[in-house]
Design brief:
Mean pLDDT: 92
Order of helices and strands: HHHHHHHHHHHHH
Number of helices: 13
Largest sheet: none
Structural class: mainly alpha
Distance between the termini: 23 Å
Helix content: over 70%
Strand content: under 5%
Low-confidence stretches: none
Radius of gyration: 21 Å
Shape: globular
RNA sequence: GUCCGUCUAGUUAG
């Protein structure tokens, strides 16, 4: 399913049933997640009904997959409806649930909404994690609120350890607005934290310079990349 | 006790 071969997943699922191999929640979620990603909501709903009628109740990964898929389609209202179901079924939303919702608001550029979810999360004693912070940073970057994004990095450095994704997100933000000096500054911070630059980060920076029609810097980075290429994917 | 399976965050012109 993750390879985008959902049809094969469905076939395999049928064969399992023929052979009397009973599906579990995990089996169902693998399928449902795949169907959500290929936005086949109708089919996903079919499997949810099937699951319910065989006495299996959806767990948080299933709800989260539905919430995340809705958010990525820009349908935060539907995600919130599903969240309502979660509460009604007496399940407890977890960090992933909130992160998916925060991402939903960020994708719509609704940062106030995103922050509200963060507040809800905290009031429910769920601690924001690296995903939360990176998602927020990305949202702020997209809106050009780079100072906010930079503040979040400072916060992350204080509270936990930023990873490659965190740095790349901020660097990409600077690149988006042509602030290459800032981008490089963050890159250097990252290197000084002993993180080895990966392909994505090099692509991000090269793309940034290229868009500024600064091919020399881009070429410089490319040769640096070649030197390090044995360490890359 | 420890690992492992399903859910959330990063780049890529046309």
């Amino acid at each position: 399913c993750k390879q985008g071969l959902v049809d094969d997943g469905i076939q395999l699922f049928s064969r399992m049933k023929e052979k009397r191999v009973l599906p579990t929640v995990v089996t169902y979620n693998s399928l449902i997640h795949g169907l959500c990603v290929s936005s086949s909501w109708g089919e996903a709903g079919g499997y949810i009904k099937e699951m319910l009628s065989s006495g299996i109740s959806p767990d948080m990964p299933i709800y989260n997959a539905l919430i995340d898929a809705s958010c990525k389609e820009g349908r935060v209202e539907r995600a919130l409806e599903i969240l309502g179901l979660v509460v009604r079924e007496k399940r407890e939303p977890n960090v992933i649930t909130y992160n998916a919702l925060i991402n939903g608001y960020c994708l719509l550029g609704k940062m106030e909404g995103a922050i509200k979810v963060v507040n809800t999360m905290v009031s429910q004693k769920k601690t924001p994690d690296l995903f939360t912070y990176t998602t927020l940073m990305r949202g702020f970057c997209k809106k050009g609120m780079l100072v906010k994004a930079r503040e979040i990095l400072a916060l992350v450095i204080r509270k936990e350890k930023p990873n490659m994704v965190t740095y790349t997100t901020l660097i990409h933000g600077y690149c988006l607005f042509g602030k290459m000096e800032e981008a490089v500054k963050i890159f250097n911070v990252m290197v000084s934290m002993n993180l080895k630059p990966d392909l994505v980060i090099y692509n991000t920076l090269m793309d940034g310079f290229h868009k500024l029609t600064n091919p020399n810097e881009a070429k410089q980075l490319f040769s640096e990349l070649r030197v390090h290429s044995q360490n890359l994917d």
